[in-house]
Each structure stands twice: as structure tokens, then as C-alpha cells.
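seq as requested:
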Amino acid sequence: MSESLYEILGVKCSATKAEIKTAYKKLARKYHPDINHEKNAEIMFKKINSAADILLDDTKRFQYDISIGNFSNNNKKTKTNNNFNDDLKYKKTTKTSNVPPKKEKIEFSKIIKEFFEENKAKKKPVKQDGKDITMEIKISMNEALFGTERKVNIVHTQKCSKCGGRKFINGSKCSVCKGSGESTIYNKVNVKIPSNIKNGTKIKLKGEGNKGVNGGCDGDLYLVVKVIDEKKGITEVFITPSEAIFGTVLEIPVANGCARLSIPKNTHSGQKFKIIDKDNNNKEIIIQVVVRTPKDLSSEELALYKKLAEFNEKKSREDLF
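C-alpha cells:
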């Protein structure tokens, strides 16, 4: 036995017109082909439209109830007809009109339009800002002291371009995101690490985080600098010849900041110094000084070095042997 129109809409045989209309709207939302992409959705949508077309029309419903032996609504219909006949007789005697009242016209296009307007209001895109990304970048003490440049690989996540984050298409897992609802994008960014940077410092790269959704702002990228120990516990730092001759003060990056190291006058290349990192269990750090010759000297600088060499050449040879 095939299911009745009442069963298709999921209502009782005695349901009011308002209850039938509510049930129809609910099922229309569920099975509309533009929303539900399952194979049987379109067939079900036609069934509920056909059922509503009959049950929301008083005459059609009355005839249908008789055909299926549903007499619960017949008395109401008969009473309605008797009232209509009485009213018609009254109108004839009073000479007001002999035209019966028009039956209510059920506009399904209006119901569908209301459904889409409600659905559109519910699914109005919400602007969301992209999430920030935090990464750790490791550099040596020498790089922390003099600065450096690194190429950083960033992993961005965003809604899958195929399924839009729904994870499933036509009842199957999305072939692009494999059911995760997200896609991964890799990007490379050149980052300049400034000199004298402290361990634990955060470098902010605006707009390099995850992408915003529906017009939202892109997130930021935060690089947390971690200064690592050199091999054998020795850190090389470079100074210029003038700094070696006249002395200087260096800021050496340690665990929770920087430690000051005084380089005395007449320091030679390869000379070692020791500093204590008090915030890291009084760890000893050995600093080895390397005198680095400047590059791309101007003609004036070369003339001064040449003159200086004439004064110190003999004395330097004596010290060497």
C-alpha cells in the first residue's frame, strides 16, 4: 500500500491548513535540489509539492479524503458547504450578490520564495578574521649579535575551495580535502633578523597568517627567536681592527636578554673571554673574538691603512717572531 499524502508530509489526517503549510516548508528546506544533492532529493521534493498542492486546497482535499476513506474531515466540509448554501440563500433574498466567494489560492511560488529568503538570512556570510600563526626560528649567538636574514616556510590553512568546508559532496568525502574541510597552502617569506636581538623576542609579520573569510582581515605571523648555543660552547663574535685597538663593549645574547662584554684595548684575533649567564643556572659562555678586515674600503681608507702599515710593519714582524 502506497503512503498517503498525509504521510508524505508527516502530518495527521486531521491536521489544520497551518500545520500542513508548516510541515511543507520544513520538508522543502530539507529536500530542495539546490540544497540537497542526494539522488532521491528531487523525487521527494516533487512528492511533497504534489501532496501540499492537494491538501492545501479545500476542494481537492475533500475529494482526496473521500477517495481514501478519511471521514474525519468530511463533516467539517459538509458543514462548510451547508453554511455556504445558507449564506448564498441569504444573499439572494437580500439582493446583495449571487456570486459565491472565491476559493483561497495557494501560491507555492510565494512559499518557495519565503523559504529562500529565510534560508538566505540564516546563511548570510559572516566575516571572520584569519587566525595568527606562531613559529619558532633558531639562530646562533653570532647571528643574534650582528643580525641575519632567513627564509621561513609558512603553512596556511583555509576552507577547501571545492567543498567550502562542508567536508562532503553528494554524500562522499571531498576529493580535494579528503573530508577535512580545509586545504593547506605553503608560502616562503624572507625575514630580516635585526642585530642585538634578545632570546625570546617576537618578530611580527603583518598579514602573513591565515587568510580571513568573507572579507575578514588576514592573521599575522609571529616568529619567536630562539638563540641556540654554538658547538663546543664557544661563540665567535666579529670586531673591526679599530675596535680591537681601542676596545669596545658588546651586547651578547643570552637566555633571557643580553650580557655586556667589555673588549679591552689591543685585543688580538682569537682571544677568548668568558661571560656568565645568571638567568640560566650561571652557565659559562666562551666568547672568541675574531678581528675581521672591512670590505670595499674607499681610496681614503686604503691610504690610511697603507700609512699605518708603514709605521707598524717592522714592529709587527718583531712581535710575530
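Residues 299-320 form the longest helix (22 residues).
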